Amino acid sequence: MFFPLLLGITLITFIVMRLAPGSPVDEIGMSPGVDTRARMRLYAAYGLDRPLHEQYLSWLRRVVTLDFGNSFRDGRRVSSKIFERFPATVFLNLAALALIFSLAIPIGIISAVKHDTLLDRALTALVFLGYSVPAFALALVLMYIFGVRLGWVPVSGMTSVEFEFLSPLGRVADVIRHMILPVLTLGITGLAFISRYMRSTMLEVIRADYIRSARARGIPGRRIILGHGLRNALIPVVTMVGLLIPSLIGGSVVFETIFSWPGMGRLAYSSIMSRDYPVIMGIGVIMALLTLIGNLLADIGYAAVDPRIRYRK
Amino acid sequence: MTAPLLEISNLEAVYYTPSGPVKALRGVDLYVKRGESVGVAGESGCGKSTLALSVLDLFDRAEGAVSGGRISFSGMDLSGLDEKQMQGIRGKRISLIMQDPYGSFNPVIRIGRQMEEICRVHGMRADETSETCLRMLEEVNLDRGVREMFPHQLSGGMLQRASIAAALLNSPELLIADEPTSNLDVTIQKKIIDNLGVLRKKHSLSLVFITHNLNLLSSLADRIYILYAGQVLEYGPAEDIFSRPAHPYTKGLLGALPDIKTPGSRIRPIPGSVPSPADTTPGCVFFPRCSRGSERCGREKELIRVSEEHYSRCSG
Amino acid sequence: MIGKLFNNRMAFFGLTVLFFLFILSALSPVLAPSPPGEQNLARRLSPPCRRHLMGTDELGRDVFSRILYGGRISLSVGFVAVGISLLIGVPLGLAAGFYGGAVDSAVMRVVDVMLCFPTIFLILMVITFLEPSIFNVMIVIGATSWPSLARYVRGEALAVREREYILAARMMGVRPWRILAVHMLPNVIAPVIITATLGVGSAVLTESVLSFLGLGVQPPDPSWGSILAVGREYMGQHAWWLILYPAAAILVTVLSFNLLGEGLRDLLDPRLSGKKDDRSPA
Ligand SMILES: Nc1ncnc2c1ncn2[C@@H]1O[C@H](COP(=O)(O)OP(=O)(O)OP(=O)(O)O)[C@@H](O)[C@H]1O
Ligand SMILES: [Mg+2]
């Protein structure tokens, strides 16, 4: 699973990058009038003059030894550029995931248990609204209301200017304050993805024969939902984490730009803008890795709740 | 005469379908005396499972509901109970074995834990539960290792035995078995039915045995109800039903049974099929398929006495 | 069928709103108080008033007019992009489902990789490298949104393939493309319509994100996303109307397409209702 995915993602990235007209050399400040010899020297220095498949293969060979090359922009190692941005992105997305799951699962359960009541309809409508809200526009609206108008929370960055002078606890609080808006935006818009699914699997579970059997044995309703239904309904929902990761990463590109969050998404955006090929490719690898880890975690979670999988050799 | 353990009168139940509610039970009367074994027989779709669900009120809110009539159990009106009180009855005083053994246990929880939970929610002391579960597994001839297993590791027959064990954990007074063997092969079917017979005597259970196979009832039932399109068409002592059936439908059902004694005799199925509960044509529900109907069958028919304890809606 | 559409409240509501949106965009030259590009530097950043229902932007252009014209562009981008994705996704899905084997695994391998890929990343790359324009936006969105469609179609085609009349047709030597076109296509219409309807909404959304980032519709052409970008810049000056109105326009449009799509799903394909879908939120 991993290698096809890695190959696929990097290959697509590579092809798209290279088939497009223009080159990073243009961006480095070489105006078109500069003489061709100088330009060719620069090309050769970056290895851009060799055939495409050779470039890709040599890149791949180096990646296997964990060497992602150096950035075209500032010559720094790609791996260190990415890894200094990595924690901020992962942290933000984990916080968003935590918010999403802690809201979506109860909402899904309540909606399913009270299916076709007014409460269910109201929840479903709200969730549907959240699902249709353009996330980046919501981000701006929240920024304006809570940041600019009310001044309750900071609107951009991960830390305040006086971060250096804060106590350790103060630093934590500072980062949390900066996270509120991005996490809220990601949460509201990502919620529906899970809660709608949770509702439908829970609804399916509630109607399953074994739930009726449990009722027939006098097991109280709450116990049936939480003890018998939830585990079964969660089984398909955990696999959604795997599906959610690409869209969260994709979202990071936009959100981190909006909120000036110093993460990988913003790095991706600025590298694309400046055609920093090695960095773009490196981020492609990280995305493949994250997707893989997400799927792996989903599989592990699946096995943890479903004995039918666990016992299959 | 003492009051029966279970008395159902004029019971009606509906299912909500996209095209409106349909009546799956249209005024069923049925009683079970203490210690008695009652058979309920009828073709697929005639409302047998609906009857079982109605007694314990197990409909999903949006699926269907009991819409009329009265169910009294041991002198108590079940429809007057709230959900909480009903929980105290289910699995404690009345147990139900479902038609499909694969749907009787939660697939992700070990059998033992599910059985112990049934004991616990009905107030059994913690130190007795494990002991009780083991004893019941033994009584249905299952290995104690089953406790550690998940449902998918058991065969259909084993699952059905396990669900019988689960049903009897709290020594209920009444056991309703909804076609417990119809999904199993014939040899296992026989073993399980014999086992049920033994358990019934041992635990002085009253039994409602639901089946589409009238034959099964010959060894098991004291009295038999014939259900058709949500109505009881005939009921009476098992002997009478087998030897002197009054209703053409019962005769048809008996004719549709393979006769073991005379080899070579052909099965004569009843032509046609059970009308859908959405069909509300007035008159005898069996009329469209009856070989000797006449125009008087266009009217609704009452249960009339055939002999002592034996009633039928038609005298043929 | 049409009658049922009117009975489904979701679909009906979505359709009604969309109808108005179409009318508004079609009639924008008549309805707009001023041409979308007309500047009036004397009245820059003016809040909503009687003359400018939704205020003016940093160059004194009427926001209401720009939103009307922006809608025209957004809707056309949405439809063309979905058209392109249909042109790619439907044949690929049909072929994968019909031929199975190597064709199927090749197509599905690509689909899997694409679905694991944050589409926006790809779109950004292509757009920057190709240089931004409405035309490129349409193509790129279309070219990246076909995989989920292809997957639906393939699933449906696989199911249809085993039906008796298809088997019979194949045995009688009916040509493959005929079987595909005559027998299988009608069966995949329902999921295709649903996915396409939802797809227009998400294409409109993607277009606005790109325009917001400066990579979509280029000035001086108006676009909801680029109005938002200006709104972001002038947030400190409390130019809330540059955020609220375009945001609302996007929300209403996307919401209507989603409502219509979900409503159609209930009508056309009850099996699918409430099930997950794998469009990645942009
Ligand atoms: N959930 C439901 N919704 C709508 N109609 C239902 C539902 N369940 C059962 N019915 C209808 O009610 C009637 C009685 O069904 P029931 O399940 O009680 O039959 P049965 O006698 O148990 O049949 P079987 O021998 O197949 O189990 C049938 O016509 C059936 O179609
Ligand atoms: Mg049944």
Strand and helix map with partners:
The complex is a heterotrimer of chains A (313), B (316) and C (282).
Chain A: H1 2-19, H2 24-27, H3 36-46, H4 52-64, H5 78-113, H6 118-132, H7 135-149, H8 168-206, H9 209-216, H10 221-258, H11 264-273, H12 277-305, H13 307-310
Chain B: E1 6-17, E2 20-32, E3 37-41, H1 48-56, E4 64-73, E5 76-77, H2 83-89, E6 94-97, H3 111-121, H4 126-139, H5 156-168, E7 174-178, H6 186-202, E8 206-211, H7 217-220, E9 223-228, E10 231-237, H8 238-243, H9 248-255, E11 304-307, E12 310-312
Parallel strand pairs in B: 3-8, 3-9, 6-7, 7-8
Antiparallel strand pairs in B: 1-2, 1-4, 4-5, 9-10, 10-12, 11-12
Helix pairs in contact in B: 3-4, 4-5, 5-6
Chain C: H1 2-7, H2 9-26, H3 28-31, H4 63-99, H5 101-116, H6 119-130, H7 134-144, H8 146-161, H9 164-171, H10 176-212, H11 224-233, H12 241-268
Helix pairs in contact in C: 2-4, 2-12, 4-5, 4-7, 4-8, 4-10, 4-12, 5-8, 6-7, 7-10, 8-10, 10-11, 10-12, 11-12
Task: Give an overview of the whole structure.
The complex is a heterotrimer of chains A (313), B (316) and C (282). Chain A has 13 helices and no strands. Chain A is mostly helical and 313 residues long. Chain A has 2 domains: 2-64, no CATH class; 82-305, MetI-like (MetI-like fold). In chain A, helix 5 (78-113) runs parallel beside helix 12 (277-305). Chain B has 316 residues and is α/β, with parallel strands linked by helices. Chain B is 28% helix and 24% strand. Chain B contains 9 helices and 12 strands. In chain B, strands 6-7-8-3-9-10-12-11 form an 8-stranded mixed beta sheet, sandwiched between helices. In chain B, helix 3 packs across helix 4 (126-139) and helix 4 packs across helix 5. Chain B is globular. Chain C starts with a helix and ends in a 14-residue tail after the last helix. Chain C has one domain (25-31, 52-270): MetI-like (MetI-like fold, Orthogonal Bundle). With 282 residues, chain C is mostly helical. In chain C, helix 7 packs across helix 10 (176-212). Chains in contact: A-B, A-C. At the A-C interface, helix 1, helix 6, helix 7, helix 8 and helix 10 of A face helix 5, helix 6, helix 10, helix 11 and helix 12 of C. Bound molecules: adenosine-5'-triphosphate (ATP) and magnesium ion.
